[in-house]
Give the backbone structure.
Amino acid sequence: MYISGGEGVPSTESTATHETHLPEGYQFLAALDRDGVFDVCLAKRRVDQTIVVVKSLSEPFLHDTPLKEALEREALLLAHVAHPNLARVLGLSRQAGHYALIVEHVQGISLASLLEYARAHHRCLPPRIAALIACDLLSGLAEIHRVAAKEPDFLGEGVHRNVTPVNVRISLRGEVKLGEPSVDRARIGRSARALAAFRLRLPYMAPEEVRGEIVLPSSDVYSVAAVFYELLAGHRYLRADSDVQLRRMAESPAPYVSPLKSPDPGLDAVLARALSVRPGDRFPSAAVFAEALERATEKLRGPARRLDLADLVAEAVRRRPQTAAHRVVRPDPTSASSVDQERLVDRLRRPKTVAIVAMVLAAVFALAWIFAWFE
């Protein structure tokens, strides 16, 4: 799964760097933006023509032995974690001293792009759809936490640390996929690129992580709540004019203010608890938070349908500007995956089109019958 600050943003770096670090058996397609630790590109696996994302460990970290050992251990375990709401880590390549994660590529858009689309059209996500996305994220996190509880060395403290809109992708079928966890900040030091990755996650980090304290699964609960708040409000839970101010706010967030135009006591109570500053005041696990959220949103207008989310994603895909950055996500317009994507968009449009045509035909037949009657 591609994780970056944008929707398939081309890297400003030369593509030669990516092609040099690409594992054998993969065909380079497009350079994508970096995150703090990896250089990211789209590639095609030659053996079966599958489009994947290749995240190569960047040059500053190639000689960091503890980091590479942690990466190997986590990649091995993540490759065996199968959950519909987690983007699959397909493997780790170690060739000629270069380390690269091979990650599932999800056809669709990132949650960050969906939020940008909604903001551009002065819209907020309906609470039911926002809750569906949040519950899917919590379901994936519950599996991560379950595996971590059995494997003490997995992810350090057993926390995902990377629940942000740019690390969530939604397919055209409405499937929500959370990307791979973030490497512990203590393992990657304070290089410029590591700090850039830290700033990207800062608005969604639990206060205890910002302060450098021990993190727990309830820290991931806070991150999901921060994302959920943004889905409801159309803006981030923490908003600041500078990194320094944002960090101060993250360490000691202001009192909770409802993101809803018409506050709902039940939903607000659930969200406020998940955003508590003290970890012990939050829901003890992702599963408990998900149950409370489902109960609160069912009282609004019933649970959201997966098709509702798929329709929204298809609408955003159709209407977004066709810039080079967006075309990178579909590198080969004639490939099977791209054709399937277009067919799926058409399929999502079809029920509405058929209904309109049926209504027009019914009106024509009714008018014809009326004229025939008077004649």
